[in-house]
Amino acid sequence: MKDKDKTMEDCSKKILAVRDALEIFSGKWKIPIIGALIHFEEARFKDLQNIIGGITSRMLSKELKELETNLLITREVIDTRPVTVKYKITSYGKSCQDVIFSLYQWGAEHRKVIIGK
Prior knowledge:
The chain is of the alpha+beta class. The chain has six helices and three strands; from the N terminus they run ααβααββαα. The protein has one domain: Winged helix-like DNA-binding domain superfamily/Winged helix DNA-binding domain (Arc Repressor Mutant, subunit A, Orthogonal Bundle), CATH 1.10.10.10.
């Protein structure tokens, strides 16, 4: 029974870690935002909105704040007229690049299987 308990404990820890990751990547917008910033390294608010497409200013602002709270991106306010705000991927944010790329690869294969394209 002890080996079974250890296995269950290990499994519970792994599930907790997956839940943490899903919390950070939750919703339909965070992964595209992170992907865009990994690709471009930095982008202005409106540029991100145009790159991602279909996201409202309010939702983009909310998602960017959450990503900043989780240390995946930084926000830089530049004193121009009008004020310019740039978002940059952090080195910690870059650490999820393999995860994002794996999701892309799986998604591309899935499209081929389901849609044939």
